[in-house]
Every structure is written in structure tokens, then in C-alpha cells.
Amino acid sequence: MSSKKMGRPLSDNPKSELIRVRADQAILSKLDACTEKLNTTRSDVIRKGIEKIYDELRK
């Protein structure tokens, strides 16, 4: 039998850090609208937003 474990393959960029954010209902509604439009998760939308702002600040 193989010594490799079954399961999900390891990620090249594991997301091990957890950030908790307080948000009001209006922000959550906007976030959920983005997730539906982009067909993705809340986490992905937040990551994309951070990347976009970071890129704008570097200009």
C-alpha cells in the first residue's frame, strides 16, 4: 500500500491566517451581491478588494 495519504492536495499558497472583521448589514449586503455576481466566495471578494487597493496605492 502507498505511504501517501488520501485527501485534498496541499496548496502552493495555504491560507492559514484568519481575519475577523466587523461589518454592518449594508456592507454584508454589498459583499453578498458581489459574491453572487462573480459566482465566488466572500473570502475571494475580500482578497480581490485588498489586492486592488494595494495595487492602486503602489502607483
Task: List descriptors.
single chain, 59 residues, mainly alpha, 2 helices, 0% strand
What does this structure look like?
The protein is an all-alpha fold. The chain is built from two helices and no strands. The longest helix is centred in the last third of the chain and has 17 residues, at 42-58. The termini are far apart. The model has no long low-confidence stretch (mean pLDDT 92).
Rg from Cα: 17 Å
Gap between N and C termini: 54 Å
Mean pLDDT: 92
Count of alpha/pi helices: 2
Write down the overall geometry. Answer: extended
Low-confidence stretches: none
Helical content stands at: 40-55%
Structural class: mainly alpha
Q: Got a strand count?
A: 0
The major beta sheet can be summarized as: none
- The SSE order reads HH
Q: What proportion of the residues form beta strands (DSSP E)? A: under 5%
Topology of helices and strands:
Elements: H1 25-38, H2 42-58
Helix pairs in contact: 1-2
Structure, briefly:
The chain has 59 residues and is mainly alpha-helical.
